[in-house]
Amino acid sequence: MKAPIDFRMMGEKDLKAFSEIRNLSREWLHDTNEYSLKETTEWWHDNEENGEGPCYWVITYFGDVIGYFRVDIVDEYPMATTDDDIMIGADLHPTFRGKGIAKSLYPEFIRFLIRAFDFQNFYLRVKSHNIRAGKLYVSLGFKQIESPNDRDDILMLMTQEEFRDIYG
């Protein structure tokens, strides 16, 4: 039986749902622009062609896309030392926020990333006004670290060792 909530690599067939969720999440994103499905599709094809940009996994509920995780190699922060350091993040459709989905899926997704890629350090950025997300990340074990820029966000980190200490 298929798990009610799961994640899988995002494909072109997911772009309509991805675009909708991304646009509904704009107030929490660093790029607050709204993008059409056509623009999203063009962006997707450009990233596919040049192999740059983050990788995405969609979060599904009984097969329907309800959100996504993004993963990108960290290269913009001085504390990032290798390709084993990644930036992660997630956005959920507003209907599914506040239901414990992110709290249960983040550890599962990080465990997957450790097993599949052996990533060592998991960074994330959260807008300083997104109090709810900040509390979620602290409850998951992320620690606030100093942000090396003047953006209105908080940089957080959890190492693989810290993850294993918390989640086994």
Walk me through the structure.
This protein is α+β, with helices and mostly antiparallel strands. The chain has one domain (5-167): Aminopeptidase, CATH 3.40.630.30. 35% of the residues lie in helices and 28% in strands. It has helices spanning 15-24, 37-50, 101-117, 131-140, 160-167, and strands at residues 5-9, 55-61, 64-73, 85-92, 121-127, 143-145, 153-159. A 7-stranded mixed beta sheet has the order 1-2-3-4-5-7-6, sandwiched between helices. Strand 2 (55-61) and strand 3 form a beta hairpin. Helix 3 (101-117) packs across helix 4 (131-140). The protein is globular and about 40 Å long. It starts with a strand and ends with a helix. The mean pLDDT is 90.
